[in-house]
Amino acid sequence: MKKLGLTLTVALAFSASVFASEPQEVASKWDGSINKAKLSKYLQLSSNQHEEVANICDYFQEQMKTANNSKKNSDEQVRNAVYGNLKLMKKTLNEKQYSEYVRLMAMTLRNKGIDVNKK
How confident is the model over 43-101, as pLDDT tens digits? Predict the structure, then answer.
């Protein structure tokens, strides 16, 4: 009976430590991939906008991969990738679409555990 209790205690402690550390791992590993088809449908993009947004999303994903693989200034590179993405999207989208995109991006970053505010 003591072995069973000890085993359950160890298993519980192990599972708690795994779940506690997961958000940090996810935040540093997000590659910036965005489902372009869903984004296009959500923002109701025109055909010209669709192509431009797809290119911006691909560029953003490249920048996020580079930032995640960087040994130095990774947080700063992620911040620059996000703000660069927003700047490019602002030029491509109309005001309503951009507002929805910013809200969506902020929610995604928060869910991934990424804080882009300057510290």
Answer: 999 999 999 999 999 999 999 999 888 888 888 888 999 999 999 999 999 999 999 99
Orientation of helix 36-43 relative to helix 47-69, angle to 10°: 130
Q: Is 7 exposed, middle or buried (0-12, 13-18, 19+ CB in 10 A)?
A: exposed
Where along the chain do its domains lie?
35-119
63 Cβ contact list (under 8 Å, min separation 6): 32, 77, 80, 81, 84, 85
Helices (H), the chain: 2-29, 36-43, 47-69, 74-92, 95-112
**What distance separates the 2 farthest-apart alpha carbons in the chain?**
68
Q: How many CB atoms lie within 10 A of CB 89?
A: 21
pTM: 0.72
